[in-house]
């Protein structure tokens, strides 16, 4: 029987569907035997004939015949021989279970389905899978069996020990992305069809399949790189790989890996590498480097470094490129020390670092603010035969600019020139933008002058950066001079430059000058945009002219500009600050009608303004209106309204609103409860405050420091110390507060209840910290002010017994009071304690 064989060889010449007994069955014309499958088993009969099976069965057999086609190129024929593994091994005898297993063997579903999951119809034979439902594109980490989290970090370095410096490295063809490839009609047409794939049918998919066979490898790579969604690119890659008479060129695999390296789809990149191995395509170290970068982007640093081990198991020798990738990954993962050790290991095995290696380490040093080490590394490069390039200096300069260390930036530029790296157009542009970004307009302008003296021409972007820097520094006159200079040099300012100056005038409160700048824009043919008008309206509102800003908004259609959400927000807050709440409310309604929703911050500020005017009912109606319109209302907005009711002493409305929050799924937080608890305590309704505190704890909310202070204040003020201690125990079991009892003692001292305060002193002195010492000092000072120096002496004695040293000056006051009252023994004993601990010199004999 066939089940006893491990494999047999069958020659196949043709596969086609054959209609038999009213049903389509698939037949494989074979040389040597005829194989029939009747649902129970396989039989052999005639020497030449067709192998028939139902579509589902044939689909499983196709999965077994994984070598059905050599696919040596476009239009390749089926192979003359096909190696068939045992039926027992693949489980053909179990129709359901076996088919499920076949789905898991390859990178995709091998069912007879179309590009979009539709029946094949007339579009021809298609062993491809459904494009949109391709399950392996989902990036799970379940298949990382060989990349567990066990092992030492030093294992990554052992891979370099097997480095053979005499090994030959193969050249890898890569796709450089020429514009002609992206503009090719076939590429653009396929990209268009992919975007419309959800509305396609099998017939149109057949056209896409026909176009695919006409594409050159570089054009397929262009299709992959043109996809905005990398998951779609990966789906298309797998779909194309399964098409009849088509085979991916190696350049396509490398392009797909490059695309995935820019994402977190590390599992997709790993499967592409596995597919390359199955197709017999040589995998270079750069291919593994793409996978390493993808792991790094996904935050899986250990898996990224273990790619080196995978590469070693695949028999691929490491080179400088993969080592640079490893250094980069370690630096990006904040593992600078490990990156330095990796560099040492590289040099030991004979892989010399290049400027890319050093630049990665320089960036790592700068990220941890070790600029001196970065400079030392730059100085070490020339003796090692690797001169620093402009990127080396740019990296350090950028971080120095952030730290506003301009003197060192200048010194670094001098070293750069001494090293033979003369600044070019790119150098000046980068430095000008860096300096301008960090508000060093004068230095940026000086560089601009130097660049122009050397014959370089700075464009309007560089000038605009300097103008923006001057405006941020408040040097509006300098900004105006730069704009005039731009006109004189034929560098016409654009809307960004004008808007920057206009905003600078508004920041200084010179709104009239800002209006003139707006007219000047129109005069020079530069049309103001929404940002320009928003800057002007914001300036008007800050200068107290919110109604004028509102009128300008009404004229927006005539001026051919459209307000955005920021515009509405700026004018609304201007009206609110001026107390024009009715107009502000109308503007918010208009804002929502135009499709812009106010933010929770906007809503909260408006509610605060209404509460200050004691217009609580209007504030509540406004909040309800925002909820009905679908605006983003959060718990802070409700808390603000509840606080307004509490300030107005309308506790019933506040409690009612607190209950309503649960009905609309806006759960109160600790701040909300604390606000109501404080209001209840102020009204003397301490029992209700206690129940509300317990309710808050029952909801799983942790009390905040403000909650502790609020509860302690009102309970102590009413003399309910015993009830307070019981409630504190429940609160402390929920959220620990180190200073809770300290606060109780100090509050009792403030209200004069010293007896209760001394009772709690034992709870305070449990830890004997500096905070506890301060609390004891408050109690001692309270006793002194009340005329009880003996009680203050007892507190100081308890502090000494807990190895706490009281304040010497305070104890001297206690000692003097004791002496004046005739308690010289206690006074001498107190000062003797200081002498014993070396805090005070003994009196002379």
TrEMBL record:
- Fetch the PANTHER family from UniProt: MITOCHONDRIAL GROUP I INTRON SPLICING FACTOR CCM1-RELATED, PENTATRICOPEPTIDE REPEAT-CONTAINING PROTEIN PET309, MITOCHONDRIAL
Q: Where is the composition biased (Acidic residues)?
A: 133-155
Q: Which family does it belong to?
A: Belongs to the PPR family. P subfamily.
InterPro entries noted in UniProt: Mito_RNA_Proc_CCM1 (IPR051114), PPR_rpt (IPR002885), TPR-like_helical_dom_sf (IPR011990)
State whether keyword Repeat applies.
yes
Segments annotated as PPR repeats: 284-318, 319-353, 354-388, 389-423, 424-458, 459-493, 494-528, 529-563, 564-598, 634-668, 669-703, 704-738
Q: Where is this region: Disordered?
A: 98-155
What is this protein's name? Pentatricopeptide repeat-containing protein At1g09900
Organism listed in the record:
Ziziphus jujuba
Name the lineage.
Answer: Eukaryota, Viridiplantae, Streptophyta, Embryophyta, Tracheophyta
Molecular-function GO terms, alphabetical: mRNA binding
């Amino acid at each position: 029987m066939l089940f006893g064989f491990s494999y047999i060889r069958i020659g196949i010449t043709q596969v086609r569907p054959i209609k038999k007994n009213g049903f389509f069955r698939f037949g494989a014309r074979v040389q040597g035997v005829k194989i029939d499958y009747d649902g129970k088993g396989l039989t052999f009969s005639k020497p030449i004939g067709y192998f028939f099976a139902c579509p589902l069965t044939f689909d499983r057999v196709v999965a077994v015949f994984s070598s059905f086609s050599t696919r040596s190129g476009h239009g390749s024929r089926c192979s003359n021989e096909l190696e068939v593994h045992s039926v027992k091994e693949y489980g053909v005898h179990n129709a359901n279970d076996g088919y499920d297993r076949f789905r898991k063997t390859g990178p995709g579903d091998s069912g007879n389905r179309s590009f979009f999951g539709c029946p094949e119809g007339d579009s021809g034979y298609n062993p491809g899978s459904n494009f949109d439902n391709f399950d392996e594109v989902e990036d799970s980490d379940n298949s990382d069996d060989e990349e567990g989290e066990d092992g030492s970090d030093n294992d990554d370095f052992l891979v370099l020990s097997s480095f053979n410096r005499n090994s030959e490295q193969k050249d890898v063809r890569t796709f450089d992305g020429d514009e002609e490839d992206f503009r090719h009609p076939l590429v653009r047409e396929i990209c268009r069809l992919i975007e419309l794939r959800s509305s396609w049918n099998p017939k149109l998919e057949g056209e896409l399949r026909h176009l695919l066979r006409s594409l050159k490898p570089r054009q397929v790579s262009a299709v992959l790189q043109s996809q905005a969604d990398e998951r779609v690119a990966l789906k298309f890659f797998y779909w194309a790989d399964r098409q009849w008479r088509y085979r991916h060129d190696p350049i396509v695999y490398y392009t797909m890996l490059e695309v995935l390296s820019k994402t977190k789809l590390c599992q997709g990149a790993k499967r592409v590498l596995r597919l390359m191995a199955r197709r017999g395509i040589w995998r270079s170290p750069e291919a593994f480097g793409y996978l390493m970068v993808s792991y790094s982007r996904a935050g899986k640093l250990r898996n990224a470094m273990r790619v080196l081990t995978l590469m070693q198991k695949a028999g691929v020798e490491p080179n400088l490129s993969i080592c640079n990738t490893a250094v980069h990954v370690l630096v990006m993962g904040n593992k600078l020390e490990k990156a330095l050790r990796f560099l040492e290991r590289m040099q030991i095995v004979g892989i010399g670092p290049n400027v890319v290696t050093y630049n990665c380490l320089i960036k790592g040093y700068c990220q941890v603010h070790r600029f001196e080490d970065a400079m030392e590394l730059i100085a070490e490069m020339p003796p090692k035969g690797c001169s620093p390039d402009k990127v080396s200096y740019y990296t350090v300069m950028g971080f120095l600019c952030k730290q506003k260390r301009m003197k060192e930036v200048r010194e670094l530029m001098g070293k750069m020139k001494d090293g033979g790296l003369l600044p070019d157009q790119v150098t000046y542009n980068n430095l000008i933008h860096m300096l301008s970004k960090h508000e060093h307009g004068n230095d940026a302008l000086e560089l601009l002058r130097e660049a122009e003296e050397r014959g370089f021409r700075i464009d309007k972007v560089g000038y605009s950066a300097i103008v923006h820097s001057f405006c941020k520094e408040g040097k509006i006159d300098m900004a105006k001079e730069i704009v005039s200079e731009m006109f004189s040099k034929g560098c016409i300012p654009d809307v960004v430059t004008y808007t920057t100056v206009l905003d600078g005038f508004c920041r200084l409160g010179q709104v009239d000058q800002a209006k003139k700048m707006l007219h000047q824009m129109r005069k020079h043919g530069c049309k103001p945009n929404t940002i320009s008008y928003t800057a002007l309206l914001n300036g008007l509102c800050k200068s107290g002219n919110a109604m004028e800003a509102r009128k300008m908004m009404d004229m927006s259609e005539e001026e051919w500009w459209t307000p955005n959400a920021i515009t509405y927000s700026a004018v609304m807050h201007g009206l609110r600050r001026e107390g024009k709440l009715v107009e502000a409310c109308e503007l918010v309604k208009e804002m929502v009608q135009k499709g812009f929703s106010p933010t929770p911050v906007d809503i909260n500020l408006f509610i605060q303004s209404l509460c200050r005017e004691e217009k609580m009912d209007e504030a509540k109606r406004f909040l309800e209106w925002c909820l009905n319109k679908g605006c983003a209302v959060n718990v802070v907005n409700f808390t603000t309204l509840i606080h307004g009711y509490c300030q107005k002493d309308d506790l019933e409305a506040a409690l009612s609103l607190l209950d309503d929050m649960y009905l609309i799924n806006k759960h109160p937080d600790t701040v909300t409860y604390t606000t109501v608890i404080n209001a209840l305590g102020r009204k003397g309704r301490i029992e209700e405050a206690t129940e509300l505190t317990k309710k808050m704890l029952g909801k799983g909310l942790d009390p905040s420091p403000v909650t502790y202070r609020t509860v302690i204040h009102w309970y102590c003020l009413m003399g309910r110390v015993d009830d307070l201690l019981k409630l504190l125990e429940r609160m402390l079991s929920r959220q620990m507060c180190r200073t809770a009892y300290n606060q109780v003692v100090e509050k009792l001292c403030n209200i004069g209840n010293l007896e209760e305060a001394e009772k709690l002193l034992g709870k305070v002195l449990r830890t004997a910290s500096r905070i506890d010492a301060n609390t004891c000092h408050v109690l001692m000072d309270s006793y002194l002010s009340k005329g009880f120096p003996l009680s203050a002496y007892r507190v100081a004695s308890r502090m000494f017994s807990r190895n706490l040293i009281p304040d010497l000056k305070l104890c001297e006051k206690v000692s003097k009071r004791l002496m004046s009252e005739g308690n010289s023994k206690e006074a001498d004993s107190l000062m003797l304690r200081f002498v014993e601990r070396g805090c005070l010199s003994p009196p002379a004999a």
